[in-house]
Amino acid sequence: MAIEVRIPTILRTYTDGAKAVEGSGDTLDELFTDLESRHPGIRDRIVDGNGLRRFVNVYLNDEDVRFLDGLASKVADGDNVTILPAVAGGAGGRGAGR
């Protein structure tokens, strides 16, 4: 058994279009290193020198890893990791709240 990683559309160019890939490791950091070995370039889109990139959200079994141990969060076979790009709102205009 492995760890399932759900890949957002914007990163699927690194996974040959796969919506989900499998990886292994004891921590989230090791998992992303493992993914990089099979999907070159993906790690740099998720992690920078300071940890998780500012506009990338990562969930471990539906828990935001920023509220866990970040890249040091422990992972195990059967876990699910979801990578989501952050979504920002636009400028005011017509619509809700007006």
UniProtKB/TrEMBL annotation:
Signal peptide start-end: none
Domain of life: Bacteria
Family annotation (SUPFAM superfamilies): MoaD/ThiS
Coiled coil: none
Xref: InterPro entries: Beta-grasp_dom_sf, Mopterin_synth/thiamin_S_b, Sulfur_Carrier/Prot_Modifier, ThiS/MoaD-like
Pfam family, one: ThiS
Protein name as annotated: Uncharacterized protein
Lineage, uppermost ranks: Bacteria, Bacillati, Actinomycetota, Actinomycetes, Kitasatosporales
